[in-house]
Amino acid sequence: MADSSICFKRVDYSLDNLLNYIETGDIGLPDIQRPFVWKNTKVRDLFDSMYRGFPVGYFLFWANQSDDKSRSIGSGPKVHDVPNRLIVDGQQRLTSLYAVFRGQSVLDENYQKRQIEIAFHPRSGRFEVADNSIRRDPEWIANISVLWAEGQNSRKLINAFINKLSEREPLDEAEEERIADNIQQLINLKVYPFTALEIAENVDEEHVAEIFVRINSEGKKLNQADFILTLLSVFWHEGRLALEKFCADSRQPGHSKSSFNHFIEPDPDQLLRVSVALSFRRARLKSVYQVLRGKDPETGLYSTAVRDQQFAKLKAAQAEVLNLTHWHQYLSALVGAGFRSRQMISSELALMYGYVFYLIGRVELKVPEAQLQRLIGRWFFFITLKGRYSSSPESKLDADLADLRGISTAAAFAELLESKMASELTGDFWDITLPFSMESSSARSPEFFAFVAAQNLLSAPVLFSHKKVSDLLDPAVVSTKESLERHHLFPKAWLITSGIVEQRQTNQLANYALIEWSENIQISDDAPPTYLPRIREQFSPEAWQRMHQLHALPAEWGELEYFDFLKQRRGLIAKLIRQGFELLSSVTTQASAVQTL
Predict the structure, then answer these.
(1) pLDDT at 216
(2) Integer Cα distance of 11 and 13 in angstroms
(3) pLDDT at 80 over 60
């Protein structure tokens, strides 16, 4: 008797049938359009295991309950316009098999097409990733994809290989038979048996995710974005391709009118989050998935009409998200806030969430661009400094988006963001909380990035140099070494000889400064009282004082006891960060702002 509580069924396939179902569109395989993350060595090992007759895992499918027959995954003609089954687990494995057996290219992490070339040594039955030496060696079939190419006759192919090998050296009958058997065994992998667990169509995505986690040996969590991206592949293929193109272009420098930039190489799920927040004012992708499937919250039933309405909202939002003018204007606001490149971004999620507010201000509330640039630059500085989206990011963004309900004018939008910043950046924050939070040795401290951003805004010179910090942080400047290096003002080796050995003490944020690498080498492990006098001779008293101000260095700091120096400098760094932040909303010139330090 069948158990009505069982939400899946077991289905057995031959590999050849699986590949045919992909080609006819019966099984949706969106990974063919996404970056392939498996290394070729892993594909090699997969074929080796199959060749030896070992089990290589199962597939997890999810029956598609849509009755819409107008759209499909992938390009090219399909018998089934909409897949009957979506693959949840085993995508990379099935992509590997499809790519090799059908000789299809895959996309690498930079969205460049490449072939997976797995080589086979028929004499020994060994697999390797093809390289130039293997391609030149007649002992190898350099690319096994040729074995399953359309129109190939396996007997002729085997005979041709043996004849070519015999030209090099005579083969006895036993060798010929072993080689022929090994090649035929490889060709026969097309009927290799696979088992799939097919989840019923009425199971929602939350339970699918739980099933995935419970049965996956690596305990991976199924990303909610994966569900939505799969929906895009099914119901809005062009939108999915547009996301992929935007991401691919961001990785290719030199292209005019593209998404390339020096801050981030976005992934589709990051852009999707922005589109979802813009269209539905929601950050939690879990709830949006049901919306996009067309689920009526009252009846619990799925409606094609409702789904189409929701997709229309998403389409309109994505058009704004992928608008290159919006994208680059937003990133220019970050430059205007003192952030120069990826090296100064402590959170990519914060960067993408900042883009949500820029788009709301520009597209919906028509905030004048000049005002919006300053406001969003200030907002990004704020969310970076506070680590606003570092914990429970979806909940925090949901709360921020909820506060925007009822906001209908540019002035109200600006007032809301300013009030949020003012409520958290109080006098106590600047004087007590911020200095205390800098008692850290984290290499990616948001406070340190905010400090450098403030130095950029205030046109600070590089420490012990006449060049500007902003110039040497320019991502367009190419160098064989980093132009600027983090330097221990009290050198680490010197501190260790003084008995201060713990890394959390020697690598304190307040012990760091950005200097040119050549100067860093000259200072080496000398103590401040040793190296400061010879450097001071190179600068006028005015330049020396200004440099100290803009690097938050106490007067005669080289003579201070180390922990006293750290305490004093943390307070000065906090004041300089505040000065830079306040400059973003001020019409005061940078030159006059520096004089008030």
Answers:
(1) 58
(2) 7
(3) no
Distance CA 111, CA 248 (A): 5
Listed in sequence order, the residues at least 6 apart from 287 whose beta carbon sits closer than 8 Å to its beta carbon are none
The alpha-carbon radius of gyration of the chain (Å, integer) is: 30
172: left (phi over 0), alpha (psi -120 to 50) or beta: beta
**Which 3 state secondary structure label does DSSP give 242?**
helix
Q: How many CB atoms lie within 10 A of CB 308?
A: 12
**CA neighbor of 365 nearest in space, from 376, 355, 353, 357:** 357
Q: Give me the mean pLDDT over the 51-67 stretch.
A: 83
Please give the C-alpha separations between residue 409 and each of 138, 276, 366, 556, in angstroms, as whole numbers: 73, 22, 8, 52
Nearest 5°: phi and psi at 352? -70, -35
User: Which helix (DSSP H) or strand (DSSP E) does residue 11 occupy?
Assistant: strand 8-14
> Phi/psi of residue 486, each to 5°?
-75, 125
More confident residue, 64 or 201: 201
Classify residue 12 by burial, with Cβ atoms within 10 Å: 0-12, 13-18, 19+.
exposed
In angstroms, rounded to a whole number, what is the distance separating the alpha carbons of residues 31 and 28? 9
Single-letter amino acid, residue 176: E
Residues 6+ apart with CB under 8 A from 474: 340, 341
Give the strand order in the sheet containing 85-89: 8-14, 193-199, 59-63, 85-89, 27-28
- What is the percent of the chain where pLDDT is above 70? 87
**How far is it, in rounded angstroms, from Cα 515 to Cα 462?**
6
DSSP string, 121-135: ETTTTEEEE--HHHH
With a CB cutoff of 8 Å and minimum separation 6, the contacts of 346 are 384, 387, 444, 445, 446, 449
CB of 57 closer than 8 Å to CB of 8: no
